Amino acid sequence: MRKLELFKFDVQFQIRHGFYPAYALVSLLYIGLLSILPAPYVEQASILIIFTDPSVLGFFFVGGLVLLERDQSTFSTLFVSPIRIHEYLFSKVISLTTLSCLSSSIIFITVHESHLNYFPFIIAVMLCSIFFTLLGILLAVRVDSVNMFLYMSPALVIVFYLPLLDFFNLIDSFLVYLLPTKAVLLLLEGSFNTLSLWDYFYAIAVLTPWISIAYMLTLHEFQRFLRTKCF
């Protein structure tokens, strides 16, 4: 019940502070851009847009949210209540993943209509958003300001964008298959093609441990942050 209440609060907070209107506008801009591209480039451009923006919006939004809540001394009172850290993390991750899925779905369904395999698409967006939102929280509790968060962000996430080089046939290395974002790109490509059971197995087998590690690191750093900065 607490998780549901926290989730509802976070969604309402995001709506009140313009997250949903902002990404409604962003989605419309992307739809407009994709609608004027030559047909042979639309599929690849769609995957690139979803991979680099809506799927990872949680990383940047959650960083700002956590730093804002810290500056407002929210944590000093929040965790003397019955709320647990894992419930707080769950709410932040799922609420932003919901926004990510909505934005991505609007773009893809509008542009590609029925020419879309929705199952691998939504798995890709959901798992990618969960992973990057956790990374955003992890970084947010390690820095002291929004400017520092933005400065450090590229150093943390750039390695996860390396599979784009393989996506555009600029490199050919099996090492990219060890990264969770390669699995995300494979699933997004599967939105337009047929994936084998092995493809699904590979994607889940790679993404699950990465998400688990990101969660454990984030939980540990959040606990350390609360001990050293809030109490």
UniProtKB/TrEMBL annotation:
It comes from the Bacteria. InterPro entries: FLQE3_permease. The keyword Endoplasmic reticulum does not apply. The chain crosses the membrane at residues 20-41, 47-68, 89-112, 118-143, 155-180, 200-219. Keywords: Membrane, Transmembrane, Transmembrane helix. Pfam families: FLQE3_permease. The keyword DNA damage does not apply. This is Fluoroquinolone transport system permease protein. It comes from Gracilibacillus ureilyticus.
